[in-house]
Amino acid sequence: MSVPAVAPEPLPLDILYEDEHLLVVNKPPGVLAHPSVWERTGTLMNALLHHAPEAEAIRLPHRLDRATSGLMVVTKTARAVHSLALQFLRRTVEKRYAALLAGVVEAGACEIDAPVGRDRAARPQWGVREEGRAALSRLWVVRREAARTLVELEPVTGRTNQLRIHCAHIGHPVVGDGLYGGPGAARLCLHARRLAFHHPAAGQLLVFERAAEFPLL
């Protein structure tokens, strides 16, 4: 059975930057990046196809979970597709996240080195698994509150749900992350706040930042 084409939709976009090769958007929480088998409308890709119908190649070189907000780069040309794919493959793209974690994180900074894998029989399916793929995250404490810690996270690798899994693994799940044991909140308090990469045509370093808007800050 063939998968139907993605339909353009006139949905709002928070665009930080755009030129002929690419654009950078701030994805809100609760929005899928790309249609799934079960959900074909209301996604970021539907909005992008409507915004730039003339673009040669609207592609998402990376993804964010539905519940995660933040910065994403979107390609518009074949040249940009190739360049960004290489930059992500070589891990030269800088990605930093803001997260509000449950509890008080004692260490000012740490690395979380724990393999992430999938077990279809488990709930949740993705987690720290001995047989999983190597996964490394870096964490820096920004501010401590009575029962919460605001941190900055860097996913050195890019496994499914990696940051959420790693934070839960050290005993400090993300606030609002019911899947991995986090306390309830109006939203998942995880936001891709910084994105830096080299322009696919001009070659200069582009750096974008957008602060998190968590309900408990």
Outline the fold blueprint.
Elements: E1 15-18, E2 22-27, H1 44-51, E3 69-75, H2 78-89, E4 94-102, E5 109-113, E6 116-118, E7 126-128, E8 136-144, E9 148-155, H3 162-169, E10 190-198, E11 205-209
Parallel strand pairs: 3-10
Antiparallel strand pairs: 1-2, 2-3, 4-9, 4-10, 5-8, 6-7, 8-9, 10-11
End-to-end distance: 47 Å
Instruction: Say how many strands there are.
Output: 11
Radius of gyration: 18 Å
The helical percent reads 10-25%
**Secondary-structure element order, N to C:** EEHEHEEEEEEHEE
Helical segment count = 3
Number of structurally distinct domains: 2
CATH topology of the largest domain: Pseudouridine synthase
Summarize the structure in words.
This protein has 217 residues and is α+β, with helices and mostly antiparallel strands. It has two domains: 1-90, Pseudouridine synthase, CATH 3.30.2350.10; 97-190, 2-Layer Sandwich (Pseudouridine synthase), CATH 3.30.2350.10. The protein contains three helices and eleven strands; from the N terminus they run ββαβαββββββαββ. It has helices at 44-51, 78-89, 162-169, and strands at residues 15-18, 22-27, 69-75, 94-102, 109-113, 116-118, 126-128, 136-144, 148-155, 190-198, 205-209. Strands 1, 2, 3, 4, 5, 8, 9, 10 and 11 form a nine-stranded mixed β-sheet that branches. It has a two-stranded antiparallel sheet with strand order 6-7. The relative contact order is 0.18. The mean pLDDT is 94.
